[in-house]
Specification:
With about 50 residues, the protein is an all-alpha fold. Helices cover about 85% and strands about 0% of the residues.
Length: about 50
Amino acid sequence: MKVSLGTGAGLLGLGVLLFSVGQGQKRASAPTMTVNLAPHSVGFVVGGRF
C-alpha cells in the first residue's frame, strides 16, 4: 500500500514536471530539465521505499 502511494506520488511528480517543461518549452534547456528531473527521481526512489 505504501509502495503504491509512493509510486503514485513519483508518477504525479513526473507528470507535473513534464507539464511544466511543456509550458516553458521556450526557456527549457537540457541542463534545466536535468536539474528539475533529479529531485523528482530522488523523491520517486525514496517514496517508493517508504
